[in-house]
DNA sequence: GAGGCTTTCAAGCGATCAATTGAACGAGCA
DNA sequence: TGCTCGTTCAATTGATCGCTTGAAAGCCTC
């Protein structure tokens, strides 16, 4: 009976343990975009397949991710949207309480993006009025699994070859995987170098979806 | 530049690591009630003083707690209310995703409290109408640092000697440190054994305060 | 200042963790 | 039935964790 307190806290600690490794948090961010096979996750994260598999199993035992088989692949995905929320709160507390995080963010921000990022509500409003173009800088697989309505999908590698797809007189709002994903920082920097007005969306796609805002799925015209 | 992703996730993982031990989570729950000295925390948690100190320093480096000196004691407290929120989300996800947690909770619940717990809004309303007595089952130190308005403070040890302080015709709503604190479960069980109508408040004091609901500080008449 | 608290440090123990390597599993397909 | 290929297991390495023990460090009070 008195052991209940210890036991239940040990259970909660299982979740903490699953969140106690930077590589696992990175995998969670990828999974927040779309479900992925072990191999895909290993490739995008730069980890070995065996190592990736072990991390995924650890998180599965902690209830953060789930897996299903499709053909010869096993597809992992987040166990639910509450995991996105947990990640969000973790990052919020980290940014507020850890000076190192604030410094790292400030360094990236001042180096590349002196302007305030755009909030979701502001983007919705200005997008409705046709004042902005929305740019998704993630890889096509993640884009196809879900993206902001009307967004154009261009990776960093493609961006400068297809600037003509962006109306030159409209501000561009770029987003990617999350609030700390560097892709949108880099995209904004490059767009500005080419004379565009460009800003970042503060949140990434998973947070947008978590907030219940409208999304689209399916691929976009590519070349 | 490309190391940013790794670095920032490693920073977030520092928080996860701080949350990866059941004893630390227990300490955080105590700190959510009121600031405490190392010695007090060691006593209430059953850990050695040295061990407690080490856990606290670990959490301080992770930005979860802060410390100040008062006289010959060093008082630790939560770094902010966002830590309470983080704990809340962690527990919510754990209860939703870990079968073990659900089982443990169900066992305690069915063994002692078959009724649904009371929500904060319901308590506020019924308390305003004078329909219920509010009972705080935490130790006096925690009660004095902050409690629900109009609450009576009786520990489990005192409860049965002072049943006369509770109007016999009003339902009693008991609360303690948090949603998984056993004190209020036990209090409800004992009150019912004495013929009272009694239920638990679903949340504990820290969650009540985090929600911005009214609180009181200061001690109560004791004997 | 000296003594007496509380707290922290430092060393050491067994246990666990992250990552590598190579082998084993197992579902799909010929 | 075999073969293939994605995934997992098993064993290993070095590093870190949790806790204990005993000593050191601060700081208050006298």
Largest sheet of chain A: 4 strands, parallel
Give the beta-strand count of chain A.
Answer: 7
The CATH topology name of the largest domain in chain A reads Oxidized Rhodanese, domain 1
Q: Indicate the CATH architecture of the largest domain in chain A.
A: 3-Layer(aba) Sandwich
Greatest interface by residues involved: A-B, 51 and 51 residues
Q: What percentage of amino acids of chain A are in beta strands?
A: 5-15%
How would you spell out the order of helices and strands of chain A? HHEHHEEHHHEHEHEHEH
CATH superfamily of the largest domain in chain A: Rhodanese-like domain
Key descriptive features of the protein:
homodimer, Arc Repressor Mutant, subunit A, 13% strand, 2 domains, Oxidized Rhodanese, domain 1, 11 helices, DNA-binding, globular
Give a description of the structure:
The first copy, chain A, has 223 residues and is an alpha/beta fold. Chain A folds into two domains: 3-83, Winged helix-like DNA-binding domain superfamily/Winged helix DNA-binding domain (Arc Repressor Mutant, subunit A, Orthogonal Bundle), CATH 1.10.10; 113-210, Oxidized Rhodanese, domain 1, CATH 3.40.250. Chain A has helices at residues 3-18, 22-33, 38-45, 49-61, 81-97, 99-112, 120-128, 140-145, 156-159, 182-193, 205-210, and strands at 36-37, 65-70, 73-78, 132-136, 152-153, 171-175, 198-200. Chain A has a four-stranded parallel β-sheet, sandwiched between helices. A three-stranded antiparallel β-sheet of chain A has the order 1-3-2. Chain A is globular and about 65 Å long. Chain A binds a DNA duplex (30 and 30 nucleotides) through residues 17, 20-21, 23, 37-39, 47-51, 53-55, 57, 69, 71-74.
